[in-house]
Amino acid sequence: MAVMDHRPTLDAIQRAPKVLLHDHLDGGLRPETIVDLARDEGYTGLPTTDPDNLRVWFEEASNSGSLERYLETFTHTVGVMQSAEALTRVAYECAEDLAADGVVYAEVRYAPEQHTRSGLTLPQVVEAVLEGFKAGERDHGIRIGTLVTAMRHQARSMEIAELAVRYRDDGVVGFDIAGAEAGYPPTRHLDAFEYLQRENAHFTIHAGEAFGLPSIWQAIQWCGADRLGHGVRIIDDIDATDEDAPVLGRLAAYVRDKRIPLEMCPTSNIQTGAAKSIAEHPIGLLRRLHFRVTVNTDNRLMSGTSLSRELHKLVEAFDYGWDDLQWFTVNAMKSAFIGFGERLELINGVIKPGFAQLKWRGARPLA
Ligand SMILES: O=c1[nH]cnc2c1ncn2[C@@H]1O[C@H](CO)[C@@H](O)[C@H]1O
Ligand SMILES: [Zn+2]
Fold first, then answer.
1. In CATH, what number is assigned to the domain containing residue 218?
2. Which residues form the active site (predicted)?
3. Any atom of ligand 1 within 6 Å of the Cβ of 78
C-alpha cells in the first residue's frame, strides 16, 4: 500500500475555510502600506522606510519577551492610522489579506481612542473602519465583525462601550480591553462591562497573558467576559503532574464547564514571553482536556504570521490532523459574537463541506 501522509500542509490549510476571532487591525498592516501612509500623513517616526526592512524590524522588535515592549511597536502603526482614508484603506487591506489566507469569518479589533490625534471623532473613526471592511467584504467574499477595544490603562472604556452599542447593527459585534495587563486589572472598567451586560452586548477581555489567574478570575467572575483573550495562564490552575490524569482547580474547571472560549495566539505568546515555545504552549494540554480552544493570529505584522501559519505550526508541534483543525475552527465559529443563525449557516454551509473536501483529498492514496 502506498505511504500516506495525512498531515495537513501549509498550502492545504490555506485552502480550508477558517475562522479568526482575535486579530488587531493595527497589528496587521502591510509594511508597504505603512510606508505609503507615513509619507501621505507626514509621520516621520518610522525606523526605516524600506518595506522589507520594516517587516523584519517589526518582527524582531516584537521578540522582546515582554508584553510592554511588544506593545511599543504599535506606536508606528497607530501613528499612520490617523485619517479616515488611512483607516478605510487599512481595514480594506485587512479584509483582502484575511480572505487570501482562506479566512471566511473574522472578528478584527482596534482601539478607536488611539485614532483621534488628527481630529477625528470616535464615531468618525468607527465609520471609516466599517467602510473599509464593508468594501472588503463585498470584493472578497469574507464576513468581518468589528470589536472596539478600550485601552486598559486609559479611562475611556465607557465611551468605547457606548460605541459598541451604537454601531451594533452596522458591523460592530463586540467590545474588548487591551494593553499592558499587570497593574491594570479589568475591574477598573467594571462600569463599562455592567453597561454592556445590561445592553445584551458581547465582550471579550485580554486576560491571563502577561498576568495570571487573578486577572482571568476578575475577567470572568467580576466583569462577565464572554470570552478570554489569550487566557493561557489558566494552565496555572491545572496540576498536570500525572499526565494521564490532570487535576483542574475550581477556576479552570469553571472555564471548561462553562465552555468559555480561549482566544489563543501561539506565536504572539512566545514573543511576549507568555509561553516558551510552540511545543510547550499550553494549547496542547488545553486541547487534550477539551477546553473551548480557538487559534488566532493576534498581530500578523508583529508576529510575521497568518491564521494558516499558526495552524500549521500547531500541526508540526502536536501532530494535529484535519479533525483537530476542524475542531478549532468549529469552536471559533460557535464562539463568534454574531447571531446563532449566521454561525450555524457558516458551520454547516461552509466549514464542514470545506473541511470534508480537504479530508477526502488528503485520504486519497498516493499513486
Ligand atoms: O496581545 C496583546 N495584548 C494586549 N494588548 C495588545 C495585544 N496586541 C495588541 N494589543 C494592543 O491593542 C491595541 C488595539 O488594537 C493595540 O494598539 C495594542 O496596544
Ligand atoms: Zn490581542
1. 3.20.20.140
2. 209 (proton donor)
3. yes
Q: Is residue 54 part of a domain?
A: no
User: Which of 29, 62, 71, 232 gets mutated to test ligand 1 (max ligand atoms within 8 A of its CB)?
Assistant: 71
**For residue 253, is it within any domain?**
yes
Grid cell listed for 336? 463568534
Range of the structural domain that residue 115 is part of: 3-30+83-360
Does residue 68 lie within any of the structural domains? no
Ligand approaching nearest to the C-alpha of 24: 1
209 in active site: yes
What's the domain count of the chain? 1
Ligand 1 binding pocket includes 203 (Cβ within 6 Å): no
Among 107, 127, 181, 209, the one annotated catalytic: 209
For 236-288, write each residue's pLDDT tens digit.
999 999 989 999 999 999 999 999 999 999 999 999 999 999 999 999 999 99
pLDDT above 90 covers a percentage of the chain that reads: 94
- Which residue type does 361 have? R
Q: How far is the CA of 177 from the centre of ligand 2 (A)?
A: 9
Burial of 257 (0-12, 13-18, 19+ CB in 10 A): exposed
| Diameter over CA atoms, the chain | 68
Q: CA-CA distance, 165 to 160, in Å (whole number)?
A: 9
